[in-house]
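Hi support team,

I submitted a single chain yesterday and got back a structure, but I'm not sure I'm reading the token output correctly. Could someone confirm the output below corresponds to the sequence I sent? I've pasted both exactly as they appear in my results page.

Thanks,
R.
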Amino acid sequence: MKKLVLLRHGQSTWNKENRFTGWTDVPLSAQGIEEAVKAGKQLKEEGFRFKIAYTSYLSRAIKTLWLVLEEMDQMYIPVLKNWRLNEKHYGELQGLNKAETAEKYGDEQVLLWRRSFDVPPKPLAEDDPRNPAKDPRFADVDPKDLPLTESLKEVIERMIPYWESDIKVSLEKHNEILVAAHGNSLRALVMHLKQMSEEAIIAFNIPTGIPYVFEFDDNMQLQKDYFIGDPEEIKKLMDQVAKQASKK
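Hi R., thanks for writing in. Yes, this is the structure output for that exact sequence:
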């Protein structure tokens, strides 16, 4: 049996402020740190022994992974970082409050920007200081690959090749893999693994700091998937994510 654990980073300061974050690098909140530590305790109690872990180039995911591995006494394992695990790029929406944006443009439009399969928000201008091409952490990434905005469809297009070429290959070899990333990069992978429809993935929410386990047989056929934790509490957290961009 092979187990892939997906973990959305703990609550960030902009999650707490209900802002579109995207590729903006913001830290974990105090609650987010607690969520990461709790996730580490849960994974340790479940007996996971990871051989390798993956995360994005954004500090909220990196810090979450550090805290989890520290809690598990597994900080020695290799950690591979890749920009393809970054959150969806929200273009000009980055930094804006979701509820206030819904007040201005309407719930339906904001839901379209947040969760539409193939409609991205308005892109950043090339000379915008938030352009990833101006960020030294992406200096080794081909500029044509760096987005100024993205839809979920485009996140899938950058994420799934990395799954096939790297993460999946590691899982076949090591049996237990941890991926600490972001709501939309993980939703892209979940959609692929579960063969979900566009309509289904739009309605699917991943809460912060809750380990999400996928079990595969030795032929890499998915057998089951489940969150670790109290089902009622997890449903409550998923509902909270869904309501983030509703009008005040």
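A quick pointer for reading it: The mean pLDDT is 94. Let us know if anything else looks off.

Best,
Support desk
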